[in-house]
């Protein structure tokens, strides 16, 4: 089968395309009855709809619903892929999937949702209170980085602090960089991070040793498995 298109200046360009009708019919058949999230996953997520990663996306989305309602809640649960999650869960969901957006990136995400919901392009509109699974999957695909954060990125960050290969950085210098550089974290945020990574009551001294190398930080603090193979 063939398809003809025309364009160019004054429509003077004519293109003739060879079309495999069987492939088109097969794609249409796959899309019939599928959700928007499934169509996006099939084409743009590793493993497609039946892949392990898509299963993780669904699991984290469902867990976010439970967390938003309260893990100890006794009322009837309003959980299911067809149910939304609060928009405030988006940052945690993205991080659970390995994407760690900056505050600027999160601001862009919420602004996009707000403009989309307003219907008239109002940049000052508030974002919607909730987001559905289909929209979240498309949002993740649009904003995920081409390359995720890995041990090599940690090594580069330590190099920017003056640490050569295998060299360590003092705790004070590292905390100062986190509190003053880039999108700075407050001391309260750092302490909260220590509690989440190390357990309730953990201090910054528990989280970061007196001196730490990039490999130690990647493995012991962030939990990057196999960092020893990537960082000298």
What secondary-structure arrangement, pairings included, does this model have?
Blueprint: E1 2-7, E2 13-18, H1 21-31, H2 36-44, H3 52-69, E3 85-86, H4 90-96, H5 103-118, E4 130-131, H6 133-143, H7 151-160, E5 168-170, H8 171-180, H9 187-198, H10 204-207, E6 211-213, H11 214-221, H12 227-230
Estimated radius of gyration: 23 Å
- The CATH topology of the largest domain is given as Recoverin, domain 1
User: How many structural units, i.e. domains?
Assistant: 3
Number of helices, counting only DSSP H or I runs of 4 residues or more: 12
Question: Could you estimate the helical fraction of the residues in percent?
Answer: 40-55%
The CATH architecture of the largest domain would be: Orthogonal Bundle
Query: Could you name the CATH homologous superfamily of the largest domain?
Result: EF-hand
Which oligomerization state do the chains in this entry correspond to? single chain
Give the CA-based shape: globular
Beta-strand level of the residues, as a percent range?
5-15%
| Poorly predicted runs of 5 or more residues | none
Number of strands: 6
**Which series of helices and strands comes N to C?**
EEHHHEHHEHHEHHHEHH
How far the N terminus sits from the C terminus, by CA atoms, comes to 57 Å
- Decide which structural class fits the backbone: mainly alpha
Mean pLDDT: 82
Main sheet overview: 2 strands, antiparallel
Q: Quickly name the level 1 CATH class of the largest domain.
A: Mainly Alpha
């Amino acid at each position: 089968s063939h398809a003809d298109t025309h364009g160019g200046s004054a429509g003077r360009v004519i293109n003739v395309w060879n079309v495999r009708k069987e492939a088109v019919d097969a794609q249409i058949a796959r899309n019939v009855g599928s959700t928007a999230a499934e169509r996006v996953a099939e084409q743009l997520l590793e493993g497609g709809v039946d892949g392990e990663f898509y299963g993780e996306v669904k699991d984290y989305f469902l867990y976010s619903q439970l967390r938003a309602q309260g893990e100890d809640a006794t009322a009837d649960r309003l959980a299911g892929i067809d149910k939304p999650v609060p928009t405030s869960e988006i940052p945690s969901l993205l991080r659970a999937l390995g994407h760690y957006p900056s505050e600027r990136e999160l601001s862009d995400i919420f602004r996009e949702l707000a403009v989309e919901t307003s219907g008239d392009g109002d940049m000052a509109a508030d974002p919607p209170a909730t987001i559905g699974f289909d929209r979240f999957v498309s949002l993740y695909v649009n904003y995920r980085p081409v390359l995720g954060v890995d041990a090599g990125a940690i090594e580069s960050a330590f190099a920017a602090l003056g640490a050569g290969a295998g060299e360590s950085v003092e705790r004070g210098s590292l905390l100062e960089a986190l509190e003053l550089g880039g999108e700075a974290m407050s001391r309260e945020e750092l302490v909260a991070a220590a509690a989440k990574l190390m357990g309730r009551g953990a201090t910054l001294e528990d989280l970061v040793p007196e001196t730490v190398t990039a490999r130690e930080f990647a493995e012991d603090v962030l939990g990057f498995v196999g960092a020893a193979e990537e960082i000298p």
